[in-house]
Amino acid sequence: MGNKVIKGTATGAIALAAFGVASGATVQAEELTKPSTSLSSDVTAPKAHNIKVLDGVLLTKDGAAVTTTPTERTVEDARGIKEQADQAVTDQAGKVADASAKEADSQKAVEDATAKVAEAEKNKAAATPDAIAQAEKGVTDTQKAIAQNQKASDTAANATQKATDSATTQKQAVEQAQKGVEAGQKAVDTAKKGVDTAKAALDGTGEQKALDEQKAANKGLEDAKKAESDAAQKLADAKKADADRHTQIEDLNNQAATQSKTATDTATDAAAKKAADNTAKADVNTAKKAVETAQAALDGTGAQKVLDEQKAAQKALSDAKIKEVEAAQKLADAKKADADRDTKIKNLTAKETEQTAAKTDAENALSEAKKNAEAKKATKEAAEAKRDALQKELADKKALSTINVPQYVIDAYKKYLNSDREEADKDALQEVFNKWIAEGAYDIERNGNVPIDPSTVDPAHMTREQAKALTQYYAHLLTAVRRQFWGTKVKTYTTEEAMDYVQKVAEAYAKENKPWSSGHSHAALAAGETPSSKLTWMNENISGMRTGTTTMTEMYRFIAGSIIGMMVDDYHSDFGHMSNMLGNEQDDDAVGVASSVTPNGLGRMHYVGFSDKYAGQALPDPYDTTQLEKDLAQAESDFQAALTAFNEANGVLTAKQAAFDAAHQALSTTQSELA
Questions:
Q1: Handedness of CA 292, 295, 299, 301 (dihedral sign)
Q2: Interhelix angle for 270-300 vs 129-205, to 10°?
Q3: How many domains does the chain contain in total?
Q4: Predicted confidence band at 226 (pLDDT cuts at 50, 70, 90)?
Q5: Residue range 313-330: mean pLDDT, rounded
Q6: pLDDT for residue 450 is more than 70
Q7: What does the DSSP 8-state code read for residue 521?
Q8: 592 CB contacts (<8 Å, ≥6 apart)?
Q9: Which of 11, 158, 388, 593 is most buried per CB count within 10 Å?
C-alpha cells in the first residue's frame, strides 16, 4: 500500500457588493397670498374740495389707506391728481392777490376820505351857524352814506371771509392731495414688493402666478382710468366754482370802492368824517386782516413743500417705472431660466435613463466578470493544489532512503560468482559484508526514510492491498540494488497475477503449519498454479517475522532490513538468497511478497520470484519519480495556464469594476442635479 497523502484543498470566496441606487426628489413651492389691508371704520369721504381721489385709496381723518394693489397707471393717476391740487392752490393764490389789490384800493379811498376830513377840520374854524347847519345836514347825509358804506364794507368783509374759507378749503384739498401722493408712494413701494413677490413666486412655482398677478394689475389699471375720468369732472366743477367766487369778490370790491368814494365826497363835518374815517379804516383793516389770514393760510399749506413732494412723487414714480422695467426684465429672465431649467431637466432625465441602462449593463458585466474570476480562481487553486501535492510527493519520494551498496561489496560478489563460488572468495565476500555492516548497512532499517503509513497491519490476516504495497516497495528497493550490480537496464516488478499467486502460497504455508526447520514447501509453492495459466514460481526467499499487530510503516522498515539481511547474513546459504534477489544482468524479475502465520504462531515473509514470460503486465512503480516528474511538469504547466487565466480574469474584473464605479458615479451625479 502506497503513501497516504492528505491533499489540502484551498477554497476562497469573494463577497459580492450589492449596489442600490435610490433616486427621485420632490420640489414644493409655497403658496403666495397677497396681504389684505384693514380700513378703520371712521372713513369719511372728502366734501370740501373737488380734487380726484385715487381709486383704491381711501382718505380718512388720519391719512390715506391703500385698498388695492397699485399699478403703474395708479401711480401715474396720483401724480396727475397732485398736479391738479397744485394748480388749484395756484389759482386760489391769484384770487387772494386780487382781493389784496382791491383792499389796497379801499385803503387809498380811506386815505382820500381822511384828507377830506382834514379839509373839513380846516373849514370848521371858519364855520358859521348857517354853515354849521349846512354841515350838520351834510354830516347827517354823510352818516347815512357811511352807514351805507359800512354795509358795503360788511359785504366786502363777508366776501373776504368767503375767499378765506375757499382758501382753507383749497388747503385741505392740497393736504388731501398730499395724502394721496403719500398713499401713491406707499402704493409704489407695495408695487415693488408685489414685483419682488412675483419674482419670488416665479422662482418657486414658475411664471403662472406672476401672469395671474399681471392680469389683476391690468384690471386695477382699468379701474384707475375710470377714477381719472371722475377726477377730471370734479376738477372742472371746482374750477367753475372758483371762477364764480372770483366774480363775486370782484363785484363786492367794486361796490366797496364806490361807496368809499361816496363817503369821502359827502363827508364835510370833521368829527363826523373822522368817525366815518375810523369806522371805514377799521372795516378796511378787518378786510385786510381777512385777506392776510387767507394769504397766510395759503402760505401755511407749504406750496413749496407740495412742489417738493410733487418732485419726490415724480422721482418715486420714475423709480417705480425703473423697478417695473427691472421686474419685467427679471420676469423675462425667470421665464428664460424656467425654459432653460425645463430643457436641462429633460436632457438630464434622458441622460439619467441612458446612464441607468449603462449602469445595469456594467453591473451585469461586473457580475459575469466576478463569476468568471471565481471560476478561474477555483481552477487555479485546484491546479496549484495538484502541483503542490505532486511536489510534496516527489520530494517525499526523493527523500526516501535507498540501499547504497559499496563498490567493494559489488566487486567481491562478482568475484565470488566468477570463481564458481570458491570458498576463499566466499570468505572474502563475507569479510566485506562485515565491513559494510560496520559502516552502517542497516541504517536504512533503523533510521532511514521509509514510506509513512500509520495504518494497522496484522501479519496473520494481511490484506491483498497491504501485501501489494509491500511487494511494490520491495521491488523498488531491489531494482535500485540490482542496477548497482548489473546496470540500469534491469528491473524488478510485480503484477496482479504474481500477487494472486503469492497470496495462495502464503495461505498454503499457514495451513501446513510446519516448523521453521521444514524449510521450503514445494507443495505450498505450487498452490498458486492454475490450469488456465502457465505462471509458476522460479525461486523463493523466506524471512522470519513477528506475528504481532504493527503498522505499515514498520513493515516497510522490515522489508528494507530483510533485503540487507539476505545479502550480509547469507553465508550459511552460500549467498543463495542474495543470488535469488539479484538475478542476472539480462533478465527482469517479477516478484510477489506475502506473509503467513501458522496456527502454531510461526511467522514467515515469502518472497517468490517468477519468470517475466508469464507474469503478466507489470504494475507501475509507485516510488519511481520518472513518471511523477512528468506529471509534476504537466501540473506546473497547468497551474501556470490557470494562473494566467486567473490574472486575466482579475484584470477584466478590475476593468469591469472600474466601469461600474464610473457608471454608478455618473448616474449619482445626474440624479443629484435632478434632485
A1: positive
A2: 10
A3: 2
A4: confident
A5: 85
A6: yes
A7: -
A8: 467, 471, 494, 498, 499, 501, 502, 503, 505, 606, 607, 608, 610
A9: 593
Which of these three, 587, 607, 622, is where a domain ends?
622
Which among 285, 301, 317 is the end of a domain? 301
Strand ranges inside 507-565, DSSP E? 537-544, 550-551
**Residue 248 corresponds to which cell in the numbers above?**
363775486
pLDDT tens per residue, range 72-92:
676 576 567 557 645 754 665
What would the grid cell of residue 5 be?
497523502
Cα angle 370, 374, 377; round to 5: 135
Residue 448 phi, psi dihedral angles, 5° rounding: -70, 165
Q: Which grid cell is 278?
A: 375810523
Confidence of residue 188 (pLDDT cuts 50, 70, 90): very low
User: Is 296 found in the same domain as 431?
Assistant: no
One domain for residues 106 and 241:
yes
Report the DSSP beta bridge partners of residue 594.
606
Q: What is the reported pLDDT for 293?
A: 53
Task: Find the domain containing 143 and state its range.
Answer: 57-301
Give domain status of residue 159, yes or no.
Answer: yes
Assign 36 to helix, strand or coil.
coil
Strands 589-597 and 492-493, how do they pair? parallel
For residue 209, is pLDDT > 80? Answer: no
Residues 6+ apart with CB under 8 A from 90: 303
Task: Write the CB contacts of 301 (distance below 8 Å, at least 6 apart in sequence).
Answer: 89, 170, 171, 174, 175
Does some domain include residue 101? yes
Q: Examine residue 456 and state whether it is found in any structural domain, yes or no.
A: yes
Query: Cell 366743477 belongs to which residue?
Result: 237
